[in-house]
Amino acid sequence: MSICANPLFLFLSRSISSPLGSIPLFTTFWFTNTISPANSLPKSPPNWATSSTQKPSIRCSNSSNRPDSQLPSSTESSIKWRPRGRNIKPKITTLQDQGFSPPDIARIISSHPSILGPSLKNQIIPSLSIIKELMGSDDGLVRAVRNCTRVLSANLGKTLVPNLEFLKRNGVSADRIRVVFNGRYGYAFLRRPEVIRESFEKAKEMGLSVSSKTFIYGIVAIAGTTSSGGWEKRLQAFRDVGFTDVDVLTVFGKDPLVFLTSAEKLTRLLIGTGKYDISDIVRSPAAISYSVERRYEVRVRILGVLERKNLIEKWPSLQTLYVSSDAEFCERFVSPYLDHLGDVYSPKMS
């Protein structure tokens, strides 16, 4: 469910748009978000490498963005929120003074309610100051906090600040770090300093130059998988499906963030289709950053039907398969063959 449809988000957005004195901050808010089981993701996705009687569907729109995160596993969730007005009003005022719009504030609070707990003076204001200094402007501050709300509740003095000092001291420019916070990976630098130092050294060992654009993402990828030997396990998962050490280094050099992808997804992509091999992944590693279920499942099944009916001579390249938007894929592989896909295809037009 989109956060904009979240009842708490809608309530907060309307409330914060009103004068602060009229916000009913002393009320207890209950909201229940019900997800229809029919719309929930299955716990065990079907094996799309084999034929299925289930009709696949594809959304023929112009969207080519990477999929949203998965829906909650439970079908219902209830949250009881009992805010204390005297503590919250100053926090909302402070955020507004820093350039956060009412929808921004509503989105931040509804997605990360724990930020209302820390002290305004000792936690939130210093955190805003640190992030603003890093990003260089109010707009940059708002963007960074929207992408990583945890910065308002984390102890930046023990994580982000020493991490930034270490990176700058070792040749990583502030511009590179800002790019990460402009995206959705700023959380990586809220880890313990020893994790960042270790990730920095491993990124160099794997051949990345500190001055390269990908180096900072190498740190993000390694730092995101360091617990319980996670990084070595991730590398081994790639080797287990046939990547050589040279392949691993090549992929890491092109797009380190693909190593945040699960080995299961990679295995299903390679083995499940039987049409793409390791060399295709090495050439286009970003392919495995997309969702198997949302990006590939329907497309692969449709292509399989077209091939069996001799309607296409060969499959598109892996890069074409993942880069094409739903609308582009429909135009090329669905619309011309609707009469042949009727028994296996249910379009969802938007």
From TrEMBL:
Bias kind Polar residues: ranges: 41-78
The record's listing under PANTHER family reads:
CGI-12 PROTEIN-RELATED (PTHR13068), TRANSCRIPTION TERMINATION FACTOR MTERF6, CHLOROPLASTIC_MITOCHONDRIAL-LIKE (PTHR13068:SF130)
Q: Which residues cross the membrane?
A: none
Q: Where is this region: Disordered?
A: 41-83
Any one GO MF annotation of this record: nucleic acid binding
The protein in question is named: mTERF domain-containing protein, mitochondrial
Q: Which domain of life is it from?
A: Eukaryota
> Which SMART domains does UniProt cross-reference here?
Mterf (SM00733)
Which source organism does the UniProt entry give? Answer: Salvia splendens
